[in-house]
Design goal:
The complex is a heterodimer of chains A (about 425) and B (about 270). With about 425 residues, chain A is of the alpha/beta class. Chain A has 15 helices and 10 strands. Chain A is globular, with a radius of gyration of 24 Å. Chain B is of the alpha/beta class. In chain B, helix 2 crosses helix 4, helix 3 crosses helix 4 and helix 4 runs parallel beside helix 5. Classes of the chains: A alpha/beta (about 425), B alpha/beta (about 270). At the A-B interface, helix 1, strand 1, strand 2, strand 3 and helix 2 of A face helix 4, helix 5, helix 6, helix 7 and helix 8 of B.
């Protein structure tokens, strides 16, 4: 099979991994006698975008889409009748270098179906990264998937060449896994994460002690969860994310709406498109990581799913009227972060401005606060929501406007 | 009343003249700033005020950083806006830069942001094409149209990343060349000065087509991040029309395959 054909098959098979990030690595790799190609400078770069709205930052491919597993949500499962292909190691190495030299990509994202066994597959992935680093002095970004069940020695070696390692948690709960990915066991997946974290920690401590330790997966770990393949609610999804962030120090959890698209008959009547759910999960994930929210504040046993019609921050504000209004001239950072329509960046700007002047509504508008969402919850120097002339003392009218009449939603960006 | 007409082309020339005008205590309302790059200056330049023996004015270092970046913006107003900011900073508004909701501060910060975004997009969208030079060496050449005069801010990035290659980036305003050791700048160019293809582009397009998921179309999101005005220099962009046309059939095929698989392996 020609390289072009393989590329077509093995990129097609890799596109269900949502992650394409190339950020977070600032590794100073050995200069390869002045003959090395490429670098990473911390921030990621998206070199192109496809009409699905996703970015292309890395050459994202599978080494092979042959697979001995039978995960039901996966196009590469053994029982799928798709076309199969397998790259040779040097073909991937050359493609990466050729694409990189033309500035198409930041580097390589390499995953694989499981061939023979976990260790054999992992060793193949490592071989690609090792040759790029050692034979070609490649300093660009490398993201390797770790194969569930691979040995600790191989995981340790992978981290020497990769900027980021990841293993997909795949589904939010163990019973989901048992149902749809019978060969994958949650403890195996978590063991990979734990091992990578332990190793990274060891290298860090060596460095602190003044030992000249090489870098180990400097851009950390991430994972991916498929959403909507099982009826598991958002509560379980977010609990799992929160647990993984805490336990293994993950940089990112990616959510991927089950794809291609659900079987028409399996869709419940009135259900919104899964893309909106994916979007709401990312918003909730942001609240957990940057806004100081706890999972139980966002979803609960009584309301186990995120509302699709409004964003989770506005939803929380509506459920907690006693917390508001917040005075932008006096409130703490934590309180400001809870106002709908105001982001982290704006909060920090407000804290700076108010050292010098009283904040009025015009300031908020200049900073592009989403006033439509913020106005029911905010006090400024010239504004108080219950004294707003048009609605008397009735904040509930303002709040009511935030909840659009129920209808089939489309994502608008 | 306008007393002075001055012309600036970049940060260095703006700074030198702004310093002289500030020391002579000339307020912004008495100055017309011309942009050398724009040919339509209404007034001929006048002499600067005589050097005054005034004490040196101090401004926050952050302002100079801001000014340096803003000077790469294409808007001819930038020099006048920067002088207004400078004037207010030394006349009892030394915190002006922190008042990010002030219209002038906001305007200049948006200009700075636009230039930084332009630099970022240059790093992303430059596409090199390989040729073999007369001396049989590989030479990578790109044709790109930045939104602003920002090439001097992005070229050093390419020099670090592609230090082992010989490369050239051609833009309508100027060009940057790396000979393996040093960065040189030259005059602007046209698309015709760049190679019209690269043997590897068919593989890149193959990848671009295959990595696209036809089951999720988000055209607005794509155009926001990859503005249509840049498509002319992106080899992969010529596929977008056809990919969108094919998408519905590809999704139908995927669904049909899925149904076939589900009938073989019922849940």
């Amino acid at each position: 099979m020609e390289v072009a054909k393989k590329l077509s098959v093995l990129a097609d098979a890799a596109k269900y991994d949502a992650s394409c990030s190339s950020s977070g690595s600032n590794a100073k790799r050995a200069k390869h006698g002045g003959q090395g190609l490429g670098n990473t400078e911390g921030g990621g770069i998206c070199h192109s975008y496809t009409p699905d709205g996703r970015c292309i930052s890395l050459l994202k491919i599978l080494l092979t889409n042959y697979c001995i597993y039978d995960c039901r949500y996966c196009v590469n499962r053994i029982s799928s009748d798709i076309q199969r292909a397998r790259f040779k190691v040097e073909e991937v190495v050359n493609l990466t270098l050729d694409f990189y030299r033309r500035n198409y990509i930041e580097g390589l994202f390499l995953s694989s179906g499981i061939i023979r066994d976990s260790d054999y597959t992992m060793a193949q992935l490592i071989e690609v990264a090792k040759r790029l680093r050692q034979e070609h002095g490649f300093g660009g970004y490398i993201h390797l998937k770790t194969i569930p069940g691979a040995s600790n020695e191989l995981l340790a070696e992978a981290g020497l060449y990769a900027d980021r390692l990841s293993v997909n948690i795949e589904l939010p709960t163990e019973s989901d896994l048992a149902q749809l990915a019978p060969e994958k066991k949650r403890p195996d997946l978590e063991r990979n994460m734990a091992e990578v974290q332990t190793k990274a920690q060891e290298f860090k401590e060596d460095k602190k002690r003044g030992l000249k330790a090489p870098v180990f997966a400097p851009a950390g770990q991430s994972t991916q969860m498929i959403i909507g393949a099982t009826p598991t609610p958002d509560l379980e999804v977010l609990k799992t994310s929160s647990e993984l962030y805490g336990k293994y120090g993950l940089r990112r959890v990616y959510y991927s709406a089950f794809s291609p698209i659900p079987h028409a008959d399996s869709r419940l009547p009135g259900q919104s498109p899964p893309l909106v759910r994916e979007h709401r999960l990312y918003q909730a994930d942001w609240l957990l990581r940057f806004y100081g929210y706890d999972v139980t504040e966002i979803v609960s046993a009584q309301h186990p799913n995120l509302e699709l019609e409004i964003d989770p921050k506005t939803a929380w504000a509506i459920r907690n009227p006693a917390y508001f209004p917040i005075d932008v001239n006096r409130a703490s950072r934590e309180q400001l972060l809870r106002i709908p329509g105001i982001g982290v960046g704006t909060v920090d700007k407000l804290l700076t401005i108010r050292r010098h002047k009283k904040i009025v509504v015009q300031d908020l508008l200049t900073l592009r606060v989403v006033w439509k969402r913020a106005q029911a919850f905010t006090i400024a120097n010239d504004y108080h929501p219950t004294r707003k002339p048009t609605c008397g003392n009735d904040v509930t009218k303002l709040v009511a406007k935030l909840r659009p009449p129920s209808q089939q939603l489309e994502l608008s960006f | 009343m306008t007393a002075y007409v001055v012309t600036a082309s970049d940060y260095a020339s703006w700074r030198a003249q702004a310093r002289a005008l500030l020391q002579a205590d000339v307020p912004p309302t008495e100055i017309v700033w011309n942009d050398e790059a724009k040919q339509d200056a209404l007034f001929a330049a006048t002499a600067l005020p005589p050097a005054a023996a005034a004490a040196t004015q101090t401004v926050p270092p952050h302002f100079l950083e801001l000014a340096e970046v803003v000077c790469y913006h294409r808007d001819a107003e930038r020099f006048a806006l920067l002088y207004q900011m400078l004037w207010r900073l030394v006349h009892e508004e030394k915190h002006l830069l922190e008042l990010v909701s002030d219209p002038l501060t906001r305007a200049l910060q948006l200009m700075e942001k636009a230039v930084r975004r332009d630099v970022h997009k240059t790093k992303a969208f430059v596409r090199f094409r390989k040729i073999i030079d007369a001396d049989e060496q590989e030479h990578f050449i790109a044709w790109y149209c930045p939104d602003h005069y920002s090439l001097p801010l992005s070229a050093p990035f390419f020099a670090r990343r592609f230090a082992v290659m010989r490369w050239t980036i051609l833009t309508p305003d100027e060009s940057a060349h790396w000979d393996g050791e040093q960065l040189h700048y030259g005059p602007g160019a046209t698309a015709a000065d760049a190679p019209d293809g690269d043997a590897l582009e068919h593989l890149w397009k193959e990848f671009y087509r295959a990595i696209f998921n036809p089951a999720r179309i988000k055209l607005k999101a794509m155009k926001k991040e990859m503005p249509v005005r840049h498509w002319q220099t992106l080899p992969e962009a010529e596929l977008i029309g056809a990919m969108l046309l094919e998408a519905p059939q590809r999704v139908e095929r995927m669904l049909a395959q899925q149904e076939a698989a589900q009938s073989l392996f019922p849940q």
